[in-house]
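Workshop exercise sheet. Pairs work together: one partner reads the sequence aloud, the other fills in the structure field after running the prediction. Swap roles for the next sheet.
Pair: D.N. / O.F.
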Amino acid sequence: MIPRSRMPALGCWLFAACLCAVLLLALMPPTGAPSTGWDKSNHFLAFGTLVVLGRRAFPGHDGLLLEGLLAFGILIEILQSFTPDRSADWADLVADAAAIAMVWSMDVVISRVFRQIRS
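Structure field:
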């Protein structure tokens, strides 16, 4: 069991590792990248995971986290426009934003429910 005092540090490391993995997967040739089978669900899975990990790593900083993840999605699309095997797509950014909004909302509700159950 990991002591509570080390949880924020572990959360930051997990968030950073996931951020790097998403960036790497977004920029590598699509033939070598793992996939869910549908590009938009790949985006949903990636950004949904980042939201959950980010909320655990940086509690109380939801606004900054949401803005940062949206900026990260924009950065990925810009970088993809410079790669030979990828292309920028506004629909991908919409999928990122939808995942951020939906998973953040669900996580807020679930967190409140668990807080009420504990108290």
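Discussion prompt: Residues 8 and 92 are 30 Å apart (CA to CA). What would you look at next?
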